Amino acid sequence: MLQTFDKNTDATDIVDxxxxxxxxxxxxxxxNELVDNVKAELRPxxxxxxxxxxxxxxxxxTRRLGAILALSRAxxxxxxxxxxxxxxxxxxxxxxxxxxxxxxxxxxISPGENAQEIHxxxxxxxIKIPGVEFQISAMWALDDFTAENGATCVIPGSHKQ
Length: 161
What we know:
The chain is α+β, with helices and mostly antiparallel strands. The chain has a single domain, classed as Jelly Rolls.
């Protein structure tokens, strides 16, 4: 089980959990107003474009949007959130001078969707260097993450294999 932190927890404690477990949960990091704004800005795009990525891996009852910075100004506040940047700096900067966003995706999973197969998000890197992370992922739950609505499954410690 991943450790859950309060939004005011020191970033070093969260980084320690990420390094140990491969994931961490920070509760209520974004304001309700910001979350509502992002959801409202993305809604028409989900309605219009969300099913373009339907397939066996992504699902058929799941809507996805790419390049969300082009669709939601409010989403920029999540992507560049000071907490995300602190954690990214702590994990990535010891091994690089700078880093960049690899993907900005919004996902909406509808009831009855099949669970996605267990996979690694970093499997496309051709090498592994012990102790060096090539990427991190920041997921913002704009609704409660539950098994019923397709919450992301993280296997603690699997990042070390």
